[in-house]
Amino acid sequence: MAGKFTELAIDCADPAALARFWCAVLDYEVLEEDEEEGVVSIGSPAVPEGKSRPGPVPPTLTFARVPEGKTVKNRLHIDINPTDREQADEVERLLALGARRADVGQGETRWTVLTDPEGNEFCVLATRCP
After folding, report:
1. Engineering a disulfide at 99: which of 65, 74, 114, 117 sits with its beta carbon 3.0 to 4.6 angstroms away?
2. Is 102 part of a structural domain of the chain?
3. Which residues pair with 34 in a beta bridge?
4. Using CB atoms within 10 A of its CB, is residue 107 exposed (0-12), middle (13-18) or buried (19+)?
5. What is the pLDDT of residue 19?
6. pLDDT tens-digit readout, 63-93
């Protein structure tokens, strides 16, 4: 049997602030927070009893405080797939939440590269159904 992708760990300076940003981006909620350890985990809201989740269970994101800052382009990043609005509208929503536009040499593409408040790159894809 193969392993399952259930969690993505993200090093950061301010786990609580970054967790709030990503909760707003993904419509997630805080699942666990340990202020002493500097760790916050967020995930998809619980499915009400008697209901089933459409599609696969989204991974949990865990933000962990580290002393060093980000210094180079991410080798791994999150792709956001807007399923209920156009790509341009989603980009504007994310910018209003605190994201910033990023130029990582992507040229003419169908996705838009943004950064979260701590500079981690992520992409907003052209609108498509999951």
Report:
1. 114
2. yes
3. 39
4. exposed
5. 98
6. 999 998 888 888 889 999 998 899 999 999 9
